[in-house]
Amino acid sequence: MRRYRELLRIPGVRGLTAAVLLGRVSTSMLNLALLVALTQRHGYASAGLIVMVFAVVNAIAGPVRGRQADRREPHRVLLTMVAAHTVAWVGLVAGLFTNAPVAVLCVATGLLGATIPPAGPVVRGLWPTIIPAEQVTTAYAFDAAVNTATFLTGPMIAGGLLLLMPAQAVVAVTGVVKLSGDLLIALTPALRAKRETKRRGGFLGPLAQPRVRLLLGMVVLDTFCFGCLEVAAVAAASGTGRAGVLTSALALGAVVSGLGYGARTWPGSPGAQLVTLHLGGAAVLVLAGMAGSAALVLVAATYTLYGLVNGPVETLQQLLVGDLTPEGQRIEAFAWVFSVMWAGFGIGTTVAGRLVSDGDPGGALYAAAPAQGVVAIVALAVLSRPHDTETLGPAH
Fold it and tell me: Where are the bilayer-spanning segments (predicted)?
């Protein structure tokens, strides 16, 4: 883990990582806390509708926020959005405590989704400007591992708090954590010192780059698979809380392999590595489908194995987005990544929900397997470009 120790010695990296951790863990906390709070007062159908409004508005507004951060000073954009986001949080929490009607809560969550500060895309766009080139791969691997770890720890923290206080109060605590993390990122000295970049116009922004569009398509398919795995976990656990064991196993495998990937140099170009990882992922998903009706421990083993195979994928995608996006458009490009992730995950859960209606998770897992194969084909298209011929590692 020498590379990670060296990474954390770089001035500003530790503080920035801690701030990112606060912001991201709050997101996974919110998913559980908000659903519980809404379900207790308004039932499952209304809770699903309100959360969907939040997700859709967030996905639509994300690239717009990213473009503003690219074209203006990122720290000023973040500070402005933190102020607006604070007002939105206050409105949502007040609505929950006063048992506001569903329509009012839809407006509140819509405002919450619209005002989310683009902290994640800003940080991902910032790494190459504050970290030596030979350590950028390690930085993105660490970033991806932290992101995955929050999906493991966030629900656990929220679940513990829900045992101690009302769900509305847990939502309020989540808001404090989120705003604190985003504010710390906005006040980071490295962000204020970010060098001026060329302002690039064009309605499509980074989407004008064909390879960026291909990469975003890969992200949609990858998160489609995660949506299928989420639903399949519930089906494999017969609708009980044991589904958390499977999703935790998946996250644990991804964190371990993601950190391992960033700790050393690996042969082959990013495209070649993505092809290998996704073909391996497709094989594991077929295996998981075959084990779908078996003992939970066996299904958990296949989920762990998929996490181990898939762990480095997010790091590779971040590297390619950063490399292939023109200077001055990177924050918007990473914002698009976050947006299409929501879309892919939502499509995956919708499709998988229809395929597991009989309680057998196999259908959802078998649907995810060909999606991984398609990603491998898309990765070949990225690999065929001359830009993508270098070996990943310290020289990258």
Answer: 12-38, 44-64, 76-96, 102-127, 139-163, 169-191, 212-237, 243-263, 275-306, 333-352, 364-383
C-alpha span between 159 and 32 (Å, rounded): 8
DSSP symbol at 395: T
DSSP secondary structure string, 177-212? HHHHHHHHHHT-HHHHTPPP------SSGGGGSHHH
Poorest-confidence range of 72-76, 134-138, 202-206?
202-206
Who's near 82: CB < 8 A, 6+ residues apart?
117, 179, 182, 183, 186
The secondary element (H helix, E strand) that includes residue 252 is: helix 243-262
Residue 288 CA, distance from chain mean position: 23
Residues recorded for the chain: 396
Q: Which residues, 6 or more positions from 299, have their beta carbon under 8 angstroms from its beta carbon?
A: 236, 246, 288, 291, 292, 361
pLDDT band per the 50, 70, 90 thresholds, residue 211: confident
CATH superfamily, region 8-195: MFS general substrate transporter like domains (1.20.1250.20)
Are the folds of 8-195 and 205-396 the same? yes
Asked whether the beta carbons of 227 and 345 are under 8 A apart, the reply is yes
Closest CA to 231 of 290, 338, 303: 303
Domain ranges of the chain: 8-195, 205-396
Residue entry with tokens 């919708």: 350
Residue 392 DSSP class: S
Query: For 298-321, how does the pLDDT look when each residue is reduced to its tens digit (9 = 90+)?
Result: 888 888 999 999 888 888 888 888
Residue type, 245: V
User: Amino acid identity, residue 34?
Assistant: L
What top-level class would CATH report for the domain 205-396? mainly alpha
Residue with tokens 């954009």: 77
Distance, in Å, from the CA atom of 250 to the CA atom of 214, rounded to the nearest integer, reads 26
Per-position b or e across 166-175, b if 16+ CB within 10 A of its CB: ebbbbbbbbb
Task: Give Cα 171 to chain centroid, integer Å.
Answer: 20
Name residues whose C-beta falls within 8 Å of residue 381's C-beta, 6 or more positions apart in sequence: 214
Q: What are phi and psi of 370, to 5 degrees?
A: -65, -30
